[in-house]
User: What shape does this take?
Amino acid sequence: MSDTILVVVEQREGKLNRVSWETIAAGQAVSASTGWALEAAVVGSGVVSIAGEVAAKKVAKVYAIESAKLEPYTPDAVAHALKEFLGKHTAKLVLMPHTYQVRDFVPKLATALGSTAITDAVGYKYEGGKLLFTRQMFQGKFVADVSFTGSGPGFVTFQNGAFRADKVEAGGAPAPVETVNVVVPDGIVRNKPQEVFKEAKQAVDLTQAEIIVSVGRGIKEQKNIELAKQLADALGGEIAASRPICDNGWLPMDRQIGSSGQTVAPKLYLALGISGAIQHIVGMKGAKSIVAINKDSEAPIFEIADYAVVGNLFDIVPPLIEEVKKAKG
Assistant: This one.
């Protein structure tokens, strides 16, 4: 087994998923700690251009794993393609983003290779020549460090926000890109994909949002959410909420941030009237900048906030909206 780390990036309809950059940052960090070589792969049909995007970063090599049967996505085809690839291009460690798509196929892939998957990791440690991966337990109240016991390859998925996409190191000259054509035999794919399911027209993937304005119990009434929406619109961001707001039906469930909702890592996260229960914090602590507005100076959210504003949000948000509008001209 070669001492190589392989990052399998995810693409959707010919576009690299933003979370994949976080996984590349994770791979670069693990590579720097262990001294293992770092390579990347993208799976699909017509993905050479996406492989070229990845090759501009600090990686040794990028593989474009190609087959017409890899588009549209099916777990059977992707698992088969990666199994064939890893049979010829050995890796000690395979890193992937913890997306719905990866969760769909990685159990099948790991089982097919007689290996193990450590999923939803939030970090890693390299101590005494041993690589450990950190997973949260009991909705983030505890963490556990786990490791692989088999020969590999070991599969690890990283939680959204565990690493910063803007920390990805660029390479010097572009890394070489190798096209690997795989054969997916007839009969391997057992399902026929339909259109991508969306829960509702307003459903949104908050993991892709760069600015999020999130509301908690401090918003008091459903009608007051309009104030937060005005701020989100002024900033060009998305509206979100803590669990109690969505449980009350004040915002759709697809807007919930936290351990039972979405995990996000935007450039800017504004928390309005959110106290900061651990279940919420685990879903947004990976944000680059956190601004919290709360009248309770002892609110737990202030412990992780980059900017803490103690005061009544109804006094603070309206002039903030006006200032944002002025700044935008």
Notes: The chain has a mean pLDDT of 92. The domain at 4-181 is CATH 3.40.50.620 (Rossmann fold). The two ends are 58 Å apart (CA to CA).
